[in-house]
Amino acid sequence: MEALSRLLSPALRWFIWIIEPFTWAKSFSQNPILGNYWLNRCGLHVTRVVIAQALFHLRLWLLSPLVPAEQRRQFIREGYILIENYLPPEQFERLQSEAVNYSGLIREFVEGTTLTQRSFMTEDIRQTLPELNAFTQAKPLDRLMRWCSSKNRPPFFFIENLCNHANVVPQADPQRDLHADTFHPCVKGWLFLDPANDDNGPHVYVPRSHRLTWARLKWEYKESLIASLKGEDRPAGRYWDGSFRVTPQALEEMGLQATALHVPANTLLVANVYGFHCRGVAQKRSHRMTVWMQARDNPFNPIFTPFPKAASRIFEWVWKGELARQDRAKIKEGIQRNYEGKFDRSH
What are the CA-CA distances from residue 4 to residues 1, 12, 14, 15, 331 (Å)? Predict the structure, then answer.
């Protein structure tokens, strides 16, 4: 039995590695096909990028009736949509209070000097929180997120609390380097429950960096070759879980410039995180709480989800299992702790 297990294990791994180029998999280090230097020299990575972009825009076109034309133009032109005073003041205050006083399972991990606390708001949990549930079920947000993601399904919802300068030991923070989340267009959203400013770290985005220009494609090709290098030949610190980091020089060569988004509380930001972005530096010991949303799916599926609510429940169930697997691994490694309680708002 053990001999059979040893025989099947490599075969199963290779089966997964062969399938992954046709999915959202992005890690060069964990897949010898995605990370193969000669395949990327022949264009494997840039081919995936081009096909994913083409299918994304096809799905956006098919779903365009969901969203007003002005919002569509802004998202396609700049890569993000920013809406201040998103909720009526009274509704926002009730939602803010509900999030601040929420008590439940919280995942806590440290990146650099930032302590991140995050809680997954499943549909069952949201139904116990009337203001959060009303926010997530509102048609304008639902349609906006379904169109921006091009997948026609609601995103995952989290409450996230960032505690700045909580860790006194300086460490590298991958979230403070300008980066693209992955090789294909996908969307994240934030409803800011606190203002975002220099004190607690604004969100930084590079407008129009989501566009697949010739300059961006050449950069993707060059970076794919560097990411495919092994051992000491591969520069340290520029790649994190398959997310490419962009240098100031490369950004300048592409004719792009980062913008710090200083926004008041009750601002909705929805961004294509194929565009370069990062977490701004916080000048003070502080906190920043948001309702955080993300929608990521297989970019090579040419059609959108036909039954969004049913699909959302299925994806939520799958994601809960994936989170549980990640929790076990990260807790074992000592880089995360889970606890039942409230968010830390003492900063």
Answer: 5, 12, 16, 16, 31
Look at residues 197, 163, 190, 199 and name the one whose alpha carbon lies nearest to residue 267.
190
Give the count of beta carbons closer than 10 Å to the beta carbon of residue 191: 28
Q: Specify the amino acid at residue 259.
A: T
5 pLDDT band (50/70/90 cuts)?
very low
H or E element at residue 115: strand 114-120
How many Å apart are CA 41 and CA 39, to the nearest integer? 5
The pairing of strands 80-83 and 277-279 is: unpaired
Position 266: which residue type? N
Partners of 64 in beta bridges = none
pLDDT of 8 over the 70 cut: no
CA distances 300 to 46, 81, 199, 249, Å, are 14, 24, 40, 31
Distance of CA 310 to the CA centre of its chain: 22
Query: pLDDT confidence of 7, banded at 50, 70, 90?
Result: very low
The three-state secondary structure class of 113 is coil
DSSP string, 2-71: HHHHHHHHHHHHHHHHHHGGGTT---TTT-TTTT-HHHHHTTHHHHHHHHHHHHHHHHHHHTGGGS-HHH
- Chain segment 174-206, per-residue pLDDT in tens: 888 999 999 999 999 999 999 999 999 999 999
Phi, psi of 289 (to 5 degrees): -110, 140
Report pLDDT digits (tens) over 312-346. 888 888 888 888 888 898 888 888 999 999 998 87
Rounded to whole angstroms, how far apart are CA atoms 325 and 340?
18
The set of residues, in sequence order, having a beta carbon less than 8 Å from that of 24 and lying 6+ positions away, is 182, 184, 296, 297, 298, 299
Condensed to tens digits (0 to 9), the pLDDT of residues 255-298 reads 999 999 999 999 999 999 999 999 998 898 899 999 999 988 89
Q: What share of the chain is helix, strand, coil (3-state, %, to 5)?
A: 40, 20, 35
